[in-house]
Amino acid sequence: MKGKYMAYVGSYSYTGKAKGITVFDVDVEAGTFKERCEVEVDNSSYVIASSDGKTLYSIADEGVVSFRILENGSLARLNSASIRGMRGCHLCTDKEDKYVFVSGYHDGKTTVLSLNPDGSVGNIVDGVFDKGYGSVAERNFRPHVTCTRRTPDGRFVMSVDNGIDQVRIYRFNERDNKLVQVDAIRCDLESAPRHFRFSNDGRFIYLMYELKNVIDVFTYETGERSPVIEKIQTISTT
pTM of the predicted model, to two decimals? Predict the structure, then answer.
């Protein structure tokens, strides 16, 4: 499939005609999607490909579902695994595809599951429920974890809590397989941080917000106990 592009679209399946994940062939030059097939998943929402592009993961009612991405772009189901909590809202694998990190909006939980060599989902290695209160606003008054990623150096995990206006920073390694909080980025009250990405070289963090129309840019350097993070820019999105 060299030079070809596919799109995988997750849909809730309890209403309408959607079955779960719709697979599309993408014509980049024409700017069109052509439906190829549908794969049954109970209420697929967030979907993401593994770092090596060989596996697709989806949030579903049963937790996390994994699929092998075949050479022609179609999907073959591998397995599913429970996250022992309410439905997740965001998925991310690390760059070596050893773990998948699940963010829980409804219960404020960060869950880490191992990944098997074939891409299937393994056991839960750790999970943390955030505690605390945000503002008195209707939406962001209790924990809502919306985005979790492992840092490029592999030493830490950063987890955005949309409800209490923080990005929590955990130490994490394969030896202990435990999330141990070592620091936090404390955002403006009622800003509702939502998602972040690292630059390709791992030196910068870009953090966007749900209730504050800006993007914050931070420098990132690894550290012994915790990373060194410094805000260097705030730019409006309006």
Answer: 0.94
